[in-house]
Amino acid sequence: MNRYRALFALPNVWVLVLAAFPARVAYGMVGLALFFKTQQETGSIALAGLVIGANSLAGSFTAGIRGSIIDRYGQKWPLRILVPGYASMMILVNISHSATFILIMATIMGLTAPPINLSVRPLWKTIVTGDFLRTAYAVDTSVMNTAGVIGPVIATSLALSSHPGSALITAAALMSIGGGALALAAVSRDWKPEKKEKDAQSLWRNPALRLMMLEGSFIGFGWGLFDVAVPAFATIEKVQHRTAWVFAAMGISSIIGGLIAGLISKRTSSLAALRKTYFIWFLVSIPMVFTYPGWSMAIAGAFLGFVGGAIQVFYWEVMEAVRPKGSAVSYMAWLWTVEGSVMSLGAAAGGVISESISPQFCLLLTAISIGFGNIVLTVGKKRLIAANRIPTDEEELNARLHATSDPDLH
User: Fold this and answer.
1) Cβ partners under 8 Å of residue 332, min gap 6
2) What's the chain look like in SS3?
3) Percent of residues, the chain, with pLDDT higher than 90
4) How far apart are CA 282 and CA 367, in angstroms?
5) What distance in Å separates the CA atoms of residue 16 and residue 8, rounded to the nearest whole number?
6) Please, which of 105, 108, 164, 318 could form a disulfide with 387 given CB 3.0 to 4.6 Å?
7) Mind listing the pLDDT tens digit for each residue in 216-270?
């Protein structure tokens, strides 16, 4: 834990962790808040899944564009424009009773979603260096997952309370607070985009990006199914409140998994760590198929979340190692454009499959999707070879000295 103490002793670490946290909680609430709002207004699980899918598809479809804008112009004004607009639209959805209006507005929300997580990730390189970056990514992953624990619990509790409209109102307030704080923070406001290399090829022609997009397509579709299957299963069994149990268990364990990943020795490369944990992730996804909304699903979800939290850390490291200069935000954004778009299709399909076949079948497809993602990384590992490098002892020592003895350089 000494590594984490050293990290939090650096300037701006606490600022970066705390500033965006409310907005991340808001994002953790949006999906379920929209799901329950639609289901309560229409009585249709399939339509609720369609609303989530439309919101996710619209958000992911424009993620690459919004990321490219930030890579070119910085974070200051994009966040200051998108944050209040997004919060306002959540309020409009909340006061509506029209299924058509909810669907349309949820789609527009996705198109204008503030890129909070995409903006935070590149800021870590301005605060820490060298091997401390893995620890920083672990902290950021754990913060995201903490928000992922709190968000669904708050959304479910409020949506099923005597004041169901308070779910979207609370999400709007948290987005305004967190997004506004990040936009005003000096570490974000003063961030300078990287200069692109001359004659650099298009990102879409980057072999590593195309491989990660293919992997992301499988994971996106499977996770879209999962996100709808869990609340749909609980709704069909008339135990909607247990949805929060499952997502909370997954979120808490993912926090622990991410923090442990941040302590993994530098002698394990990012790519090797990713591939090993990915295979374990596939294995622990299988028991979810045989669970029921309650303790069995929560326990299986905890294992799934633990490994998934570790994977996020190594995934970010791999991406950082293989991306070209000038794509600090847009590289991840274009990945999310593909993964998120396919995820929205999975969410839309998840509602239909849950009603017409069964939620368990959705969970089976999730496990199969993770299995295919593992195959893609195994077959295409040579395209990610830049992430297989292990820092030398000299680089590690310089990183530690820079991080602990010369904080003003950050």
Assistant:
1) 67, 118, 121, 319
2) CHHHHHHHCCCCHHHHHHHCHHHHHHHHHHHHHHHHHHHHHHCCHHHHHHHHHHHHHHHHHCHHHHHHHHHHHCCHHHHHHHHHHHHHHHHHHHHCCCHHHHHHHHHHHHHCCCCHHHHHHHHHHHCCCCCHHHHHHHHHHHHHHHHHHHHHHHHHHHHCCCCCCHHHHHHHHHHHHHHHHHHHCHHHHCCCCCCCCCCCCCHHHCHHHHHHHHHHHHHHHHHHHHHHHHHHHHHHCCCCCHHHHHHHHHHHHHHHHHHHHCCCCCCCCHHHHHHHHHHHHHHHHHHHHHCCCCHHHHHHHHHHHHHHHHHHHHHHHHHHHHCCCCCCCHHHHHHHHHHHHHHHHHHHHHHHHHHHCCHHHHHHHHHHHHHHHHHHHHHCHHHHHHHHCCCCHHHHHHHHHHHHHCHHHC
3) 36
4) 6
5) 11
6) 318
7) 999 999 998 998 899 888 888 888 888 878 888 888 898 899 889 887 766 678 8
pTM greater than 0.85 (yes/no): no
Is the separation of the CB atoms in 38 and 48 below 8 Å?
yes
A 10 A CB-CB count for 270 gives 27
- Side chain identity at 18, as an amino acid letter? L
Side chain identity at residue 206, one-letter code: N
Nearest to 171 by CA among 109, 100, 103: 109
Q: Which residues of 1-15 are buried (b: 16+ CB within 10 A; e: fewer)?
A: eeebeebeebebbeb
CB 259 within 8 A of CB 135: no
* pLDDT attached to residue 137: 85
Identify whether the C-beta of residue 243 lies closer than 8 Å to the C-beta of residue 156: yes
Q: Hey, what amino acid is at 239?
A: V
How many beta carbons lie within 10 A of that of residue 383, not counting itself? 17
Regions of the chain where pLDDT drops below 50: 393-410
Whole-number pLDDT of residue 211: 94
